[in-house]
Amino acid sequence: xxxxxxxxIAIFGTFDVENYGDLLFPLLAQxxxxxxxxxxxxxxxxxxxxxxxxxxxxxxxxxxxxxxxxFDGILIGGGNIVHIRDFGLPGYDENAYPxxxxxxxxxxxxxxxxxxxxAPGVLAPDGTAPGPDWLQxxxxxxxxxxxxxxxxxxxxxxxAGRRPEVMPDTATDxxxxxxxxxxxxxxxxxxxxxxxxxxxxxxxxxxxxRSLRRTSVADFAQQLDAALEAAGATAVLIAIGRCxxxxxxxxxxxxxxxxxxxxxxxxDTLQDIAAVIAGANAYLGxxxxxxxxxxxxxxxxxxxxxxxxxxxxxxxxxMDRTADVVDSWETALKDLPRVLEQPKQALPxxxxxxxxAHWNRVTQIFAAGKQAAAHxxxxxxxxxxxxxxxxxxxxxxxxxxxxxxxxDAPPPADDTPPPAQLAWDARAFNGLIADxxxxxxxxxxxSHLAQTPAHLPARLGEVRLAMARDEPQKALDxxxxxxxxxxxxxxxxxxxxxxxxxxxxxxxxxxxxxxGLDMPDIDETMLKAATGDVLSSMPMQAQVAFLKTALEKxxxxxxxxxxxxMRADVSGDYQLAxxxxxKVEQDGPLPDYAAKVRNHLRSIELSLPDALDRLQSDVxxxxxxxxxxxxxxxxxxxAGRFDLSVSALxxxxxxxxxxxxxxxxxxxxxxxxxEDRKIFAxxxxxxxTKAPEPAWLLQYALFALRAxxxxxxxETLLLLAETxxxxxxxxxxxxxxxxxxxxxxxxxxxxxxDVRIVxxxxxxxxxxxxxxxxxxxxYINSRYLDKVMADIPAHIIYLRDxxxxxxxxxxPELGADEAAMQxxxxxxIAKLGQGKVVAIGGSAAGFAALRTGLAIDADAVISLAGFVxxxxxxxxxxxxxxxGMAEIFGADLDAFDLRQQLRSHPKLQLTQVVGSxxxxxxxxxxxxxxIKNAQAIVLDGIxxxxxxxxxxxxxxxxxxxxxxxx
Length: 966
Known about the structure:
Layout: E1 7-12, H1 20-33, E2 38-44, E3 58-60, H2 61-67, E4 73-76, H3 96-110, E5 115-117, H4 133-140, E6 146-147, H5 150-160, E7 165-166, H6 174-177, H7 180-194, E8 202-206, H8 217-231, E9 234-238, H9 246-256, E10 261-264, H10 270-279, E11 282-285, H11 288-296, E12 301-304, H12 310-318, E13 325-326, H13 329-341, H14 351-367, H15 384-399, H16 426-434, H17 438-451, H18 456-468, H19 472-485, H20 490-502, H21 506-516, H22 524-535, H23 540-553, H24 558-571, H25 574-585, H26 592-600, H27 602-605, H28 608-620, H29 626-638, H30 642-655, H31 660-666, H32 673-689, H33 694-707, H34 710-720, H35 727-740, E14 755-758, E15 765-770, H36 782-789, E16 794-799, H37 818-832, E17 837-842, H38 844-855, E18 860-864, H39 883-889, H40 899-903, E19 909-915, H41 919-924, E20 934-939, H42 948-953, H43 956-965
Parallel strand pairs: 1-2, 1-4, 2-3, 4-5, 6-7, 8-9, 8-11, 9-10, 11-12, 12-13, 15-16, 15-17, 17-18, 18-19, 19-20
Antiparallel strand pairs: 14-16
Helix pairs in contact: 3-15, 7-10, 8-9, 8-13, 17-18, 18-19, 18-20, 19-20, 20-21, 20-22, 23-24, 24-25, 28-29, 29-30, 31-33, 32-33, 33-34, 34-35
């Protein structure tokens, strides 16, 4: 029996079949809910046991119905389970799927259990008619109503009258369940077992039979073998869906192409499958959750979307992985060399806060306990299973009826339908396409067109069939004829737009889309899908320009305003994003995804004190997710409310110690040495017992170095040096630390103050070090940097900015603002000596060093990947400032352009150091053109912004300092 204080939560889905993706959901829920004292029980149509040893045990729907009163809440999904179809799976009765969501909700309401939709997918029947009352009661009963893609939300809104929130598939949370470092170690063991040479690239390959279309196994094996031979790679064939026969196909492919493939079809843990994907150099496959796993761990991928289900595009958009989705294995194999050259790509920053908010809300709902009936019974006074069966049977009968909408099928000229007109069964046709039974689909379309050549649903079906067969030109020719005949029909408009986009005719697709905006029948729902089609092949700036044009034609479109606002934010036009968000807010609250971006713009929209007050109120009201707490920490420091900043940090460390953002923010808050040591001890326990993700480990290593635990820092960096994404940074920092050696720092540099002076006997020169956001230069803390400075004939002044505002608000120990800081610094320098004055800083602190260097009449400034203006270096170049910088500099970037001041101070010599292979810094060098007292030092082969690391390693920094003082 569970502990009396433990809550039992039932999660519904197809967890009784051997399908990797479906089996992840109970594990992910368990990982998130267990810390709150909640036990997750998986419920499926049967209590079938799979081969995988690391799954959550399953009970049947029948068992749940008997014991529902012993539960405290239910989760529905994920997976594509919200529909009324019968797929004829072994052991499943014809109502198995509707029982997983509608039946589960009905039982939950009768027992007062809260209901949460855990981002399932929805396959609503075709047509626009709303569903019956019982279906609308199911939707209304959800305490949290979330699905995993926009198409599912559109379908549910049309079908049940309530629009759910759209959020990423919860499988994007996999690194929270299985940290990347743990999977990499697991894959190393698998790789050794499979005898794959270390230097050989590995492709995690998943092939589903239907994704091959008409290609035989032998022909595909030949194509695969040639592609792997050319790439010099080995494919590990994984069986993601054994329930679909993937393991048998893997064996057959290996037998047909044994040179470069290994069949890994006998995995008995889900974690092993995830490890192969996470550890591979690339993933090619036909599984959505295979691609999601790859994206979660940053692995380059191609997803063969055959058939092209809406779930593929829906997740790809949210993961910023639309380029992964291809329409054939031929394209995927052709892309393989390019995929292997791609760098790792992290998930968008927006996904983690969405997942965090989702699980926080789920925990709150279940923690509140059982509830009084707030909604009517789904099937009043009836046995749930019997009533559900009758209701579903009635709906299925209705979904097979011919469409009657004038938009779908205009009547014949004489307004009298033929007496024996065949009914167009959209559900049956969709099933043929999904099963790739194209011959039957062709026959089905042909029989309708033979009877009525102008029958619009059949002609649209003909276009869809050509698209499914990968015949884009034929589809385009057919849709063009329809567009010529019925230009005002919205379904024709949508279909022709898809064909234009698929054929790569972007300009024509844009023109066709804009023309459709004049048609009143193109509603917001249809516009959403169409916008994705037309934007799919455009770069970001082109998308912004196009959406502006579209919005001019339809200025009241909420969808277009939100699309443009989101892209304006990404491209740096924050004022446009704010204006659009405000306009949408006049008609009601923003969707969750837009509200999150809107909240981040508060510090640009409002004054800093107002933005801080608003955020503090949100946190005090319960918004204690890691993003909000870390943002509160940052804004409070910027406003000079350092006590509030530290308290927010401590709360983040208490609630979210394993979130990399927490330790990232910790590195940017300057505490006492004693508190650093105390926090380090707690973090070390986590590092050694919890296997955190690499991003967390990098921040932990930096904090260990800051706290003086060089051994632990080095050990962690050595571990990260073997990883693909963070390896270059770790190796570069290790090289710099090796050069700096084991010498102890001078005592004065270790003080707790923001101003530390290290005097050198007999020196007259002064070097002022403007420390970066984490102290020191780049990732080198000043306690190690001082090894370089100790050899320089100068007094050293170390300055750090507790505001985190690039010293524009000064340093409190030196005065109330920047001008006071500069005056106090000049007086301090005058007392220390009469020699040369050199200011030095990295990145944004390089800008601060130059700005103050000009104010105090310094002799030289050394800027390591800094900038002389936050604006564009030349007309047409991109601004250096993005959202974080925009909060600091405001809208008038020209006010911070230092080029004219630099020209008017010919005594000051600026040296700017950049890496030759890091394009943004090379572009910013253009700002130095025609400035005679500025020079550039370009370090060959360096492809990072953190140029201070190689500058220390190769002696460039020491040489520049000595030259400046000589």
